[in-house]
User: Fold these one by one.
Assistant:
Number 1:
Amino acid sequence: MSMPVLMPEIGVPAATVSLWFIDSGDHVEEGERLVEILAGAATFDVPAPVSGTLTRRLALPLDHVLPQQVLGYIDEDELHVETA
């Protein structure tokens, strides 16, 4: 299952993607930093919401992003997927 990586609400109307720490196709652990965001003079790291493989990066460095915008997608590890 693909999980979106969302731009968090950080108290500003828009921010800029600085850099990605993980490349598409790489494995990431839940909580690991994925992408750095610039908002004025401050920087923020967006962590991985789940463990899995980063399959797509939609926002690239220097792109302006809005709160709750999808930055990319992670395919969850099979072991971490909960079933109902």
Number 2:
Amino acid sequence: MTSDHRFSPLHDVHVAAGASFTDFAGWQMPVRYSSDLAEHHAVRSAAGLFDLSHMAEFRVSGSGAGAFLDHAFAGALSAIELGQAKYSLLLTAEGGIVDDVVVYRTGDEEFLVVANASNREPVAAALTERAADARGAGATFDLSDVSDETALVAVQGPRSRAILEASAGLSAPGLADLRYYRSIPADFRGAPVLLARTGYTGEDGFELYLHPSKASDLWEALAEAGASHDIVPAGLASRDTLRLEAGMPLYGHELGLDTFPQQAGLGRVPALTKPEFVGRDAVVAGPAADAPVLVGLVGEGRRAARAGYTVFAADGDDTDDGTADAPIGTITSGALSPTLGHPIALAYVDPRFAEAGTPVSVDIRGTRLTYRTTPLPFYRRKKD
């Protein structure tokens, strides 16, 4: 009997560590090792070790690489410096979001695009189509899907840099001076590593891209160096609550093909100073005035609103449609915040109810509980 699941190059390491697994975009990935709460708190207080090898990576190189990326993506990517990373969006012509990505400039004429695992095929299809258009207009560059040649390990948390510095076999000149959303070339036991200071948890942290054949050795070296720093392996469950506290959107929850950047609070990502990119006209036109917008919600007690729950106006508030009890939005992500100790959620709501401090109610299994809108993020780390 064959399996359609894909497995990380670190799968055997996770099995040996007692991980529980979940299907994520066709991959069998660790959802937790011990407990969601323990792993979450470890990242906030010390460090967590994540396997992100399911992410998708695309290399773009050549004299026309920057111009192609400027056409294909919403951001001004040709302008980023060597070693710089930039968050960007891949849009449809209608302004919807195909995926949110991070783009690294790894050479004078070379870039690495990191996309979500669930969107590898849509991103590949969109880039291939847009590459054909660009080459037809005379651009010269190479586009390759290097996902299967790339493993990705992340160390997140306030002690992450100390762990990297203590890891046997890892050589990273310039690590002490590496700024946020920057990357440097590094080396692990003779294998090239792209070491980036990025993350998706709201904490300081680093991501290490290297060949899959070296992933297990790197994981073990990081775990050994991190033992005295209270590092723990962390799964997708804690990663989700960490990113939620940090107010970071997740594709398929807060972002999608029906979402304009402005609705998701990402209106500054598209570089409208560029004369052309796929989706520019739609972004300029923008969503309808009454299109729902993304807000943060905080509640009291211990009962958390979950994705798909309905948001209503607070008792007594009229929605101007003749029914004071009409739905005004939908929860996209929600949890009882491990760090803050109260329920938090992201939701798309009628823009009339988006102002910070506005009371709303959420139907949680038949009971209406009061929430209030709040600025994002819910949690912000204390910086050195």
